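Pipeline run #58 for the internal structure catalog. This entry was flagged by the ingest filter as a single-chain record with no existing model, so it goes straight to prediction. Upstream metadata was stripped on purpose; only the residue string is passed forward. Reviewer on rotation: M.T. Logging verbosity set to normal.
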Amino acid sequence: MLNLYANFIEDMRSFNCLTTGALLLCALIAPFGLFAQKPVENPGLPARATPADYQAKGQIGKVTIAAEFTAHSVPTAQGPLTAEDYVVVETAFFAAADARLVLSSEDFTLRINGNKKQLPSQPFGIVSMAVKDPEYVPEEPVSAGPKSKGGISSGGGGQGQGQGEPPPSPPKIPIEVRRAMAQRVMKSALPEGDRALPQAGLLFFQYRGKAEGIHSVELIYAGPAGKATIVLQR
């Protein structure tokens, strides 16, 4: 078992999983056959034309951080995914031509509804296992589950689910579909390391509440560029 684990770690390194998020993604999806056959680049999302094209922005010296709160929606180049347990902020860094900055998702936290406790940014590798594709239609029908003993129905003369009978099993999502969704999340996440600006990508924060209950959102940055608080919702 130890040899197997050691070989697995070596395999992950060979696929250039260098960032925290990528390493977690590899560790999570490899045992389930979700690991891609080739390394997947993390380009992030294309930066919009100007910071004014985002919901809000903040200035730190010569660097502008722009952001847009997308709630439980995960925008990707191939269309949006959803994440019930996470909320998402699309973030972009702008500066003068030839400017560079060391980027890290760990430089961000999120404050929701004025809560004193700030939510830390989560690695995209974890988030990629929790996303769903609203456009995906399962190929196999949902199982009705085993019938309860005695054929007891839920009432009336119909063929309803019997008391004590388990709910229908959720449809199984094929491995290749899960792999594709994981790669979409990975490619859309904020690129990390020393980067030429502009750069844009997604930040993820664990939040299980409904979007309707979110009244105020503040994105807080504390990194190499300085410190800033960007109000996304009041």
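catalog note: The first helix runs from residue 2 to 14.
catalog note: The mean pLDDT is 82.
status: ready for reviewer M.T.
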